[in-house]
Amino acid sequence: MDEIIVDFIEKPELEDAILIEGLPGVGNVGKLAVEHLIEEIDAEKYADIYSIYFPPQVLVDEDGLSKLVNNKLYYKKDVGEDNTDLILLTGDYQGMTPQGQYQLTDKILSIAKDMNVENLFSLGGYSQGEMIEIPEVLGAATTEKKVEEMKKLGVKFSEEDPSSGIVGASGLLLGLGDKLYDIPGVCLMGETSGYFVDPGAARVVLKTLANHIDLEIGYERLDEKAEEVEELTSKVKDMDMGGLQQEGGSQDLNYIG
Amino acid sequence: MDEIIVDFIEKPELEDAILIEGLPGVGNVGKLAVEHLIEEIDAEKYADIYSIYFPPQVLVDEDGLSKLVNNKLYYKKDVGEDNTDLILLTGDYQGMTPQGQYQLTDKILSIAKDMNVENLFSLGGYSQGEMIEIPEVLGAATTEKKVEEMKKLGVKFSEEDPSSGIVGASGLLLGLGDKLYDIPGVCLMGETSGYFVDPGAARVVLKTLANHIDLEIGYERLDEKAEEVEELTSKVKDMDMGGLQQEGGSQDLNYIG
Amino acid sequence: MDEIIVDFIEKPELEDAILIEGLPGVGNVGKLAVEHLIEEIDAEKYADIYSIYFPPQVLVDEDGLSKLVNNKLYYKKDVGEDNTDLILLTGDYQGMTPQGQYQLTDKILSIAKDMNVENLFSLGGYSQGEMIEIPEVLGAATTEKKVEEMKKLGVKFSEEDPSSGIVGASGLLLGLGDKLYDIPGVCLMGETSGYFVDPGAARVVLKTLANHIDLEIGYERLDEKAEEVEELTSKVKDMDMGGLQQEGGSQDLNYIG
Amino acid sequence: MDEIIVDFIEKPELEDAILIEGLPGVGNVGKLAVEHLIEEIDAEKYADIYSIYFPPQVLVDEDGLSKLVNNKLYYKKDVGEDNTDLILLTGDYQGMTPQGQYQLTDKILSIAKDMNVENLFSLGGYSQGEMIEIPEVLGAATTEKKVEEMKKLGVKFSEEDPSSGIVGASGLLLGLGDKLYDIPGVCLMGETSGYFVDPGAARVVLKTLANHIDLEIGYERLDEKAEEVEELTSKVKDMDMGGLQQEGGSQDLNYIG
């Protein structure tokens, strides 16, 4: 079989579109943010991506139905005040090897380029290794212009963070988008402890993005999830447990999805 | 050499066939079940599969003869009351890497499709992490119709299990069969402790499948093996040993073969 | 670059030749045996094999000269009473991945086939995990006829050993030689503790092979090396040290070279 | 995408050129040396090398700008008294797998060959596992003539070191340069503890190379960096800490960059 199989449900025609990525990673921040956005704007799935670079695994839903793990592309036209066309990328896993990460990201960028994507945002979490009261949004971008635009929205560009760069799909979309596809990109990272899934961090990241594209959406479901996690984590804090594993598809706490 | 080499002994012509997989995995349940079935119905080997995705290893039999590790395909026509044509897959190992798992499963599905396979069953164990008195059969399937059919046979479709999905050949046969080959599939998993090879779990899985295809076979040899393991495990329990390694080709207890 | 590069120095014409393999492995038994044989019969190197499957490494000799790690093929015509043509394979490393092992072994077999190799012997050590007073030679073979021939030479074919089969080049040469190249093969394994390089085990393996091809050679250098190791190991025993690392290119004590 | 992408900024025409490699490795010695040389002779970058063999990662600079990790080629014509043309190789990482190391080194050698490189030097550190007062420069070379030339410059060719050979890009440039491209090579290794980045070791390595090509450069910045590290390490010694991790892109202390 081909290393990557893209199964198109439809081929929407978009103009001056923005690609927004949220795959599993630190605190599952990116995935939570993009899944929430997909629901809020009622985006349509238009492609499934299967690959030998994903784990050899099916997921089983509550009805006993199995589904091969994959990544998914959604779109929505004329979103927000600026009538922006959006492509949204989420999925069960990131590629499992460096080679897989490169090939999957390259494939997604080539699809995006074909669909007139002119800008991209990768969303993720930034693990601070300690509980975060009010998470800030850290940023990185491929151009100075993008850095300036994001600073106006309150995004923090720090000399120290991310000290080790950005690893995984969020980083590669910026890197390959810039070098091979001429698509400028921004990575928005919500500060998170890194110990739990973090809907609160997803909220601040999504809010920043929504402001940028002049989009108003509700955050109720993210808030509810955040409260659930809050409850759980305070119980855990009471039990005084140390280095807990986060949920989600990431095997590596330093991975920024 | 090619990554996968299929060495056909013959090319049987089958109609409306069912593929049944039982490769090494948790409790070796699937392999035990399929090997027992092969013996009971006196199925014929028709192909050997060699691959760079298997370990670089020969096995040596009691006469000192070496055999390159492989997977094997058997067939039997007109089995049971419904005169069903069966293809049976078993072997020494599963593919050793995710990429190998995908490519091997894809190759087997393409062979199956060519031989008019219309349905598939993957058999395995489901590790409960504790001793199981009376094992149930858990299921997953690619279509609602299959779920309903299996429920009637007593297969349990649980919201909780398998919580992490199905990993390995059993999962991929469902996933790729569904997405790339249009072959509906069912995975039958016998509950097992996961600590030992488990002929008892193999028996319940095989019984379920036999009921489905209206086939009567003996289970004496599985019962004998189950007793042997029982004896062994009760000795071990007496010695109060913890986390024992299972036998068989699986390196990963969570692997469902 | 190509995955495997064979650099021929010459292309000798051989008849009814025997391939003898001795690559690094348990106790370095195979490599010691083949290197000793090469010296004793004054065999000629005719090809260097470089590969991306070997470590990215040069070795540096006592004069400061670097040499890319490789495998080497030697030959000698009309050896022993029977005037047998021999090809001898040794080298710095075995392939580092299963895929590399398969591809390298396949390449070597295709070269051997082209040079009229009709039989092959892979030499190695068999780790017993305890000090061995008088090492026996264990065997495995691809045909019953070979098993019988070897039994007459005192080779032990045991129901228990090698229980996990033969891993690595020695195993694959038998397996792929048998399945893909129609070259019957024998693996001769000298019993060894597995804790040290073992020239004594190399000696008994080589003696068995020499008897088979009616060849008389000296064993002085192997005996001297064996004495050196003996001295070392008795010192070590005095120091009462446990699980010592063996020397040589093998990273895995269970690897049979 | 291609496994290796070379993005040429310009294609300089050089004559009888020398390739000098300094990628991350033990003590970051090679990278420090080549980066210092690039600054001192004001060399021009002419190519960026991206690859699936590098980590899937962008680095983020102090302005928040992201850059895909890569290797970089610089050049400078008519350097030193002998008017030597130089190509300089440095970068963020070495290839992450043996296969990646081979393919990247082969690609760089093929570029070098096209640009009339006639000799190469790979620079690195040699970890002694203890603090080094006055570091010596150890050498290895592909030809006796090179060994003699280097000895005259005070380079030490030792029977013991490097006992395990030279692993990584520095080793492969010698090995593949010699075997596949007919480019003679020298590896210069500065003795270092292996516990810290070591600008002092970089200095002695660079001085040796500069002497060889009759080039006078300043070493002030390396000296300053060496003092900074000295301060840091003496503080650490006061704190009596053991096995510290070195900085830099190398994951393996035995890796010689």
Radius of gyration of chain A: 17 Å
Strand neighbour order, sheet with most strands of chain A: 1-3-6-7-2-8-11-9
Oligomer: homotetramer
Please state the average pLDDT score of chain A. Answer: 91
Give, in order, the helices and strands of chain A: EEHEEEEEHEEHEHEHH
Point out poorly predicted stretches of chain A. Answer: 241-257
Give the termini distance of chain A in whole angstroms.
27 Å
Tell the overall outline of chain A. Answer: globular
In total, the number of strands of chain A is 11
Brief description of this entry?
The structure is a homotetramer of 257-residue chains. Chain A is of the alpha/beta class.
Chain-wise SSE layout:
4 copies of one chain form a homotetramer.
Chain A: E1 4-8, E2 17-21, H1 29-41, E3 44-51, E4 57-60, E5 66-68, E6 71-79, E7 84-91, H2 98-114, E8 117-127, E9 137-141, H3 144-152, E10 166-167, H4 169-180, E11 185-192, H5 199-212, H6 220-238
Parallel strand pairs in A: 2-7, 2-8, 8-11
Antiparallel strand pairs in A: 1-3, 3-6, 4-5, 6-7, 9-11
Helix pairs in contact in A: 1-5, 2-4, 5-6
